[in-house]
Queue: 4 jobs
Job 1
Amino acid sequence: MSVLTKKFTTKYDTAPFSQIKNEDFLPAFKEAIASAKQEVDDIVNNPELPTFENTIEAMAFSGATLDRISTIFFNLHSAETNDELQKIAQEVSPLLSEFGNDIRLNADLFKKVKAVYDKKDSLSLTAEQATLLDKQYKSFSRNGANLSEDKKMELREIDKQLSKLSLEFGENVLSETHAFQLHITDEKDLSGLPEGTIEAAKELAQSHEKEGWIFSLDYPSYIPFMTYADNRELRKKMAIAFGAKGFQKNEHDNQEIVLQIARLRFERAKLLGYASHAHFVLEERMAESPQKVNTFLNDLLAKARPAAEREFNQLTQFAKELDGIEQLEKWDGSYYSEKLKQQLFNLDDEKLKPYFKLENVLEGAFTVAGRLYGLTFVEINDIEKYHPDVKTYEVKDITGNLVSVFYADFFPRKGKRNGAWMTSFKSQYVLGGSNERPHVSIVCNFTKPTETKPSLLTFNEVTTLFHEFGHALHGMLADTIYPSLSGTSVYWDFVELPSQIFENWCYEPEALALFARHYQTGEIIPTEYIQKIKESASFQEGMATLRQLSFGLLDMGWHGQDPTPIKDVKEFENVQFASTKLYPDVKENAMSTSFSHIFQGGYSSGYYSYKWAEVLDADAFEYFKEQGIFNSEVATKFKENILSKGGTEHPMVLYKRFRGSEPKPDALLKRAGLL
């Protein structure tokens, strides 16, 4: 019997990583699927009349072992993968998709759920119970429970293929990211690059037993190179390699996979009676329909486009005056934007980085969360980690009760995908009178400390850490009965509110004074720098908004219509990007083939939600600013109505309870300088 299928005997029931071997996963998954099936059979075969308790509640707590194994496995697959785990994922994903369908397409189980659902008005349910019942019923009705047997078989086949294809997509992107290296042997090619970036590139070359310097497509290497490297040809080389991931007609090409995923999602939606994949997804979102999303995106586009064109013309003019550049290309954007920003605000990341040592920024996030929500964070070393780089913390409330276990994993490595995300190893729920506390993790890719320097963050990385930590607070402060409604289990266009609102504290002098200290002298960040950070926050906001909108429109393009006629990924993209285009097209590049958010992650038909949540976060933070950014009354309202409630009620109901009214876009437009 595997350690994975037994109750853990560790402190706080944390995952015993050292005892888990790769070969344990497949048998543990099979055993846990069999036992979850048995739990479902017991519900189906219960001779008593179906009630909320013996059907809906029993299902909410079934499959707990399987959920636990899945979270541990897929978290490792994202943060610490290897060939073996990838191979297991290929085997496991179809099994899980099959199991999900076994439940959703179980006619006898659906009968029981429907029997409870049909008499819901006569049951005296709490708001959370009513939501659970509604979600359970819809998880059947929206996923084929009312289909004929042959259609159910068709659905199963589609789901199996989709889970396999999205895995393949992600692995191809990872392989392509690691396949490219820019190896520099001539020192003059390093011109413009910050010292820390050069040092990290040297260490990377040494780790590959090479002379000189190596730059990779991992963000901590790629972004500084594109921002500071004076050599335009090398920037071009890097940018093309970055944009060509999955688009090189080689063994890792994703073009066909993208077309297949889009078609299969459409077929699935049609099978279930929806006009498109987006119609299916958005039915369970605040936005409700593709029409509403497109109106939302296009309204913002109309407001942002003039500002973006002005900013782009200013940048073009600047590059021409500075270096005689006649045509601004994509690989020039970050470089000249940084130079222009320095000229306008006399502010660059290299000036700021000494004030943002990683440990201090993390401590800052802890302090802000402490001031707002009464939390304390203490590093502990008596729970296991999946990698030596990971740090582990106990999170407690004012009375000293455990709120959560917190894992933080900050540096890039070979088995870790790019980007930053929050996840959890265990959900919060209440069972048998015990409030089980969550185990929450954030994963980022920041610059590693070198021999001479600690990890110093760019301001953008500071906001990334606060963003993911905002998600983590949503997970940590969860206080619901049922695991499926806990923490971040909310509508996807609501899930970014806790993360995005937390970024706002990075711009406030009162908050920055708590943690932005020079790593050598201990001096607090100068007021003029804070002023400049605030002034420059809306620098090129029009262009940044346009970029975000272009991704949202591309996503809706793939999923808001019948994609069957699309034969050429690149051609299709060009049409979708027409209204947001500023730079000339780069023929070697495509966006969709490495757009993991929508083809591997869960953001298909949901990319708009970043912007949607920005409206919510600007409106919500306005309330904090009116009352004081550490006002305990507003913080308590946010904690009680948003952070602790998870998905127990409709997000708009929760939001209005916190704010007293629906969100208005004015605060966002004002913040972005677009009003």
Job 2
Amino acid sequence: MDELTSTFVTESRDQLLAMEDGLLRLEQNPGDADNLGAIFRAAHTIKGGSGVVECHFIEAFTHKVENVLDKLRNGEIPVSGALATLLLECCDHLGALLDVLAAGLPQPDATVQARGDALLATLGAQFLGDSGSGTAGDLPVEHAAELAASGGGIVVTDAWHISLRFGPGVLRSGTDPLSFLHYLASLGEIIAITTLADAMPAADEMDPECCYLGFEIRFQTRASKAQIESVFDFVRDDCTLHILPPNSKIGEYLKLIDQLPEDSMRLGEILVRSGALTQAELDAGLAAQSAPAAAAGAAAPPTPLGDILVGQKVVHKEIVEAAASRQAAVSEKKAGEARMIRVHADKLDQLIDLVGELVIAGAGASLLAQRSGDSGLIESTSVLRRLVEDIRDSALQLRMVQIGETFNRFNRVVRDASRELGKRIDLVITGGETELDKSVVEKLGDPLMHLVRNAIDHGIESPALRAERGKPENGTVQLNACHDSGSIVIEVIDDGGGLPKEKIRAKAIDKGLIDATATLSEHEITNLIFEAGFSTAEQVTNISGRGVGMDVVRRNIESLRGSIEVSSSEGQGSTFTVRLPLTLAIIDGFLTGVGKASYVVPLESVVECIELGDAAGGRNYLNLRGEVLPFVRLRELFEIGGEAPARQNVVIVHYAGKKAGLVVDELLGEFQTVIKPLGVLFRHLRGIGGSTILGSGEVALILDVPALVSLVGSSEERRLAPPRRDAAVSP
């Protein structure tokens, strides 16, 4: 696939997303003219681009869709749920056609083609009627071309219309007007000709050497407008000539305008280059524009050239509007390109990797400078370190994208799923402007899809049941996003029936996940839904019920160094809270030492550092200004040998509103951390989230703060819980 085609595919997918979003909003607000215009422009852009790359199967399909949207925009057909559904299916099919083009295939396969033909047949039968039977070349015109030629009359024909009036002095120059008509006939066929004698004076006032006649001519030819005009070159200055194209060719001019190079051109240049206007006609229009302005003074605004050309009846209004739209679109795109540039994701990832290596090299240089004791070298490396930090922040900012685009894709999911299940569900999105690393966003779509579909299927009740429970018939699913202490928090909230804890417990016992005599907390019961193969659905649907999904959600989120929690109240709804790091590349860390090993704590999780002292004694908690703070001794957790130093320190961290302490031997200060993933063999290590390389070349492990905080909390719950018969949850 060449670069032009690749750019078309990428931009067309963006336009499809805009179309889909607009169609979903159209159902809520059918009278939004701006939204209708945006939907139409998106389809028109795809069709125009497909013509440029000569992908005719996309062009032909999009043309039919555009015809329907044009009728919708003009109020000829009403907005309905059936129409919106059909147009959304057309968007899906266009996505499939783009996949065909991206794969380098010349044509879609039989299945895809049959699907497209079925959609076109439905569009034609239900919304286009006879008007939908045209081909891709018969482009829509908003209004019938009813332009009055000089001398009167309406031009609505399939032939060229030539309005010709010879000047009074044409005979004195020895010119025979009829000879031009004979020459014109050599280029085509004169279908009809009407002689205009309205300028003929009374007999006593007539000058026999003057010409008073004019002609209205219907002319069929394959010649261009410029060739027709050249017939009258010798009398061009001594006649009034208007040449109007046939109605059947207006669409061709529109197509030519769409396919013009994206150069900055004036309106007249676009019309001339498309063949809709000749240079002589343009010059005459410009002269007419400048004449009144010069007479009125510089303060008077000139009449728009397009209005003048239409008034002179040398070009159709639709063509002028298309040229003006093309001019505005090119100008807007040029302005946007001046502010933005497309960069391939692989190049961006390579840049981030190089910045990471620069951070490591800078740390090594700073370490050597500190060991040398050279003040000049230390100062230089300090400046270098500051610049590296700025480069790091700027590079990471390039990868930050808003999560709103991911959220907006679920409008379609909620709409289709709710209709399939016979439910009424509204999707509320907040915090769409929240930014996070693109690599996180790319891997977040699938987990969120499972959460939203489960909220629709299992959470939200049927309208009848909601009415019985005193709830509004329309259920609500919320997608919220916000930043919290260097992490992003995403919530999927529904106001449905909540998680049936007794049902979950019974299902877990039935599947052998827990023992029937086990005593579990509400938190432990609700977490059973994340076990593989677990489902409380009475029957399997197209949406869920197979027991595959929630375990995948947890696994995928944990692979992103994140966590997921669920809280639920029966009869009121459930909240799934996902916490993720903002980036998976480079973070600010706090370096600590335990024995001969080094550990990095993400700096955004660090609250403060205190000395452990003897206050804790043999306990695993201490009094922090009147607050009980549980902690974990990393030396014991990771089974690090050797004697512990007499003075140890506690790094107080927080996550998801909970605090915990990490007991370490040394506090080594802040450290720019380049995250290196652990190998497959080490992915199950408890409390370790990755690794990094120190300036000395040694490897330091990055602590998984969420896992450690959860570990400390669980330990304290077990310690403080009353004696009970425990039954372990099976792995």
Job 3
Amino acid sequence: MTDEKVTRSLLRYFTFPDGSTGALITLDNGQDYNRPNTFSAGGMQSLSDALDEVERSEATALLITGKPYSFSAGADLGPGGIMSSGKTPRQIAEMGHETYRRLGEMKIPTFALINGMAFGGGFELALNCKYRTISSAAGAVALPEVHLGLIPGWGGAYLLPRLIGPRNAVKVIVENPLSNNKMLKPQEAAELGIADVLLPSATFVADSIMWAHKVVTGAITVQRTDHTADVASWDAAIEQARTFVAAKTRNAFPAPLRAVELLEAARTNDRDAGFEAEDDALVDLLGTPQLRSSIYAFNLITRRSKKPVGVPEGVDPLPVARVGVVGGGLMASQIALLFASRLRSAVAMVEVDQARADAAADRVRGLLETDVKRGRKTPAAAAALGSLITTSASLDSLANCDLVIEAVFEEMDVKKDVFAKLDGIVSEQCLLVTNTSSLSVNEMSAHLRHPERVVGIHFFNPVAVMPLVEIIPTERTNDVTLATAFAVAGKLKKTAVKVVDSPGFVVNRILLRELAVLFAMVDDGLSLENVVKSTEKMGLPMDALQLLDLVGPAVGLHVNETMHHAYPSRFKLSNFLTQIVSNKITKLLDEQGHVKPEVRALLPKESSLTVEDARLALENALVEEISIMLDEKIVDDVSQIDLCMLVGAGWPFAIGGGSPYLDYSGASTRVRGKTFGAA
């Protein structure tokens, strides 16, 4: 028995204008719009039963749509879903193919009316139909399986490249999922040829019925291109896919590689062979630790983005109508824009002098202009957003703010000075927030008249993209302040994790431990090539050199010094890194990703240290650091650390954010004698 929320296929008949009968199936799981249609065993059986009835009827066409706002989000991967249905991997794989392929092989034409979100197996249901309409308000369309450690296994890997061509299919099946799980808008789906026609939302079903009728009667003929004939283009698309996967994942995980293989084979396979290949791939992938880790990560993010841990119960947050930002650099400008865009609140930015205040205003305008150029905002929307943000050189302009966040240089004395001045300017109810990445919020607020209204909200760069904020209460932060911080994070559409005030908090503590271990080994003669290769098995989005270049060697060294001061035995200072900064080298890598000659000149003599030495040392260090953080009760449990690394550092779903990988690689047992056991 499972607690599957069955998506039922509700069948009714209607009459076309010429008097013939049409069949309409509406997918509906009986839940509100917050719970999209999904498929597990019960839902698939309901669809199969409805198709049986249609085949026995006099219907001249079959149309399938979804409940409001949801066509189908595909297979139910949550608790009580398809993974706990009692089906074997082979049965799960074959179940979708056996039911869906009927849609493409029925004697009558079949139409998918994509009225709302269509993900994964829901998207594949539409692909198996002969024709597709899509609503202008359908939301997102995507095949996210590769992001989750799977492949489009209910027809997608075979049908899509044949429908829209191999290059476009590579984009949808491989590139988009591995690029922060990018989705397609309805217009894009129509332009790619996924949908045959884009129709207005207000009259979508009625218009779809009329369009279907024209197809049935021959008034409209939908042309299809035989993409399999262009062998050269197909081969080029597959080679591009392989290059992309290697760059994004270091070929560390099986799912993207398997997806590329299926796309390559789709050109010469017939439907039977194509579907069987998908079955085989699903069977292989459904048993992998990477998939278990991915499902754990998916459910963790889904659950915690809606209900974060540590929100004070029964406490009403304070309203936040006006926001102040101290600082005018890139980070501060991004934070200001985020508050203005999400809260639609007035934002006052303050710099140390008028010249820097003017530069901050220019920086905000530049960010908005970039959004306009990239099509993210209309000129009017950008102008409206910009009008909410003002800049000045006076902290007095923040007197009537409900929340003030400092984003100045990462120096304790500088931040203390800012807070001391603000303490005498803002109201007693105004929240004082720090964006510090590693400094003690307790120390920062200890001298204030009202330390209870101080809290850390640590954003990650780029602010608009990275979903995580670490919320750091002090020993004296009151519940109202904490509740307000969580409420603000929610309105900013961020995933919030409560973290005990400690050096580096969670994300930076883990990343800096990685850098400290690997660059200490460089001091001992580990080659930079082996530094890069040491994280390939984990498939991290950036190796240690790229990570250091992202933050900048000077910042990296500065924060490393902070961590070394707190934990000298574990966060060793690297002589090599110190020399990099002393020689004013701002990047280790050139534009082609090669180590710069001036960097190589500072390297010590290479020793016999290998990639395996570095990998084991890194894994051991991560297990140790996570274990210590749990002992120190920095977060409630290890899942919170995984969540931080997933949404704050972009660590892959396939490693579950960290601890699942350390479990299945054997590192946890090797170091601590037991697994973390989160996934």
Job 4
Amino acid sequence: MDINKVDIDDANFSLDLSDATQAVKENRFEEALKLLNLILRENPTNIDTLYLAAVSTRYLKKFDQAKKLLENLLLNAPDMGRAFQELGHLSRDMGDEEKAVMHYRQACELNPALIASWNFLHKYFVKNNNQPAADHALEQIQKLKSLPASLLYIDQILNEGRLGLAEQKCRAFLKKNPTHTYAMSLLAEIANRLGYFDDAEFLLEKAVEFKPNDGDLRMKYAAVLRKKQKFVQTMEQVDILCEQYPKNLSYQAQKASETMQNGDHKEAINLLNDILKKNPYNFSCLTSRGHAQKTLGQTNEAINSYQSAYQIKPDHGEAFFSLANLKTYSFSRQELDSMRKQVNRVDLCQRDKAYFHFALAQACEAIEEYDEAFINLDKGNKIKNEQSKYTIEKMDKELQAQIDTCNDSFFKNLGKGGCESNDPIFILGLPRAGSTLIEQILASHSMVDGTLELPNILSMAQGLRGDDIYGNEGNYPKSMKSLSQEKRMELGKLFINDTKMHRKEAPRFTDKMPNNFRHIGLIHLILPNAKIIDARRYPLDCCFSMFKQLFAQGQEFTYGLAEAGSYYNSYVKLMNHWDKVLPNKILRVNNEDIIDDLEGQVKRMLDFLELPFEESCITFYETDRSVRTASSEQVRKPINKSGMHRWKPYAKNLKPLIENLDEELLKPEDIALINS
């Protein structure tokens, strides 16, 4: 029996499983199953036991039993790539090629280190004349086959989130092979996932020194430098890649991406155009160019780029979603039919499937096909929810910890400290609550630079967490109690210095990272003079708008109506706490108030910020600046009420939302409409 077919290693399981594992390796499946069933009686949800039992029953051709075991396994480990691979094996053995392809693609998305899945997909793509996909699969196979078996296993369990075991085995391998660069990169990835970016940077820096011509290593090194906000050094690494491999268009595309991330979208477009001259069929670069054009307000050009991308690759879901995400684009009947066809393909990867569902939802809503729109919204969100490890309980606990820690005595005991700069203006709250509109208004003022969503505060908070490799949570926010005045000053100055590259010449600047509301205590400690604006929107409008939006990352609470409602409740609770312990620190601005009285709310915000009134804030839609968020097109138009009450056609579907929202936050007539 080929050990790679079952992807197990007896040394990596508990002692209780050792005999069963050995029996599976030696094809003694009946014996293995007896042992595994005994273990399952004591621990029916053990992931490794369920996996081995599924493997054994499949080889014994007990397909129904194998299916039930795998379903149970995925209930306990929904993102386990090997489980989907085993589902692929099961579907293959049952003669269902289409289902096998679907499961193998899911497996590779979750865990790119699964050779068996790539092998099947490669054969399938070759048979169906999908050469680009076949080439990609073959590249992955060759890369994985070049690895020692022990590193391949580490790669697999790392992708399953078993960081403790992966770290243990990686360190053991490096002890024997101290200069093995791939092992160093795996250990760096573990550190990266835990937020230990200094460790990740050190490991990758050393790996690049050992192997300076390894492009993949240098790319990983550049990525961690970016996470650490070392933008100059990031670009230096990308430039080295482009010099080393002048014909490698992927590295040139990465340079364009970095240029875009640094805010120079015009130069990014120039770089992407150069690539497209060499390869006009590069759909990924066409999509990236569309993103840059959209950010600059070049809507027609962005539409052409996205359309060109999907014409080259009809299953490129991101291109269709990007068109939908313009909020102003109307899909043709032909485009609508194409999306419906693509989303039902069995070999479509989950990432593209999610894109198509969200795009279809927008397209169907535009033609008032609300039932189909909601079906697609629900399916798209379920895909994202299954990929996420988000739980209401965990988030409630995290936000409650802020309340418990940052009480009146907390700030009193720590006293004054931090950087005295009043440059930053934090615009925070929930996504889709109107923060982009507020930022556009303020960035239209001559004394304010709009710098979009900055990750710095979130990175600092992550650095204070101290999570360990075994999944144990760190001590944040309690760790803030030990921040000395010197350390608070250091962190405050670090924020000001690290954000300079995003600014121009104005004395004030905005940071509109919405999730910063979780860390107002930290903001106050390190930047006591910073101003904070809380963007607020009626919960039904806000939550449903979140549910309709496919976010790039960091907003996992939006992928379910119950999750969105619960998060809104917790957000209100935490903001009420900040108002209590930090009076006059925060200005709440309701989106509905801006719509009803723009000038009054503009003056109110400028007074709070101690800035003189400027008419340009009223005509904000005329301001020429980059806007990267989902509201980019909306803020380039005068105020209107088109975004209000968009939830009403879906009222019959929204009971899970209102069941998780405090009734005091809602209008009685809206509750009645949803319950009717």
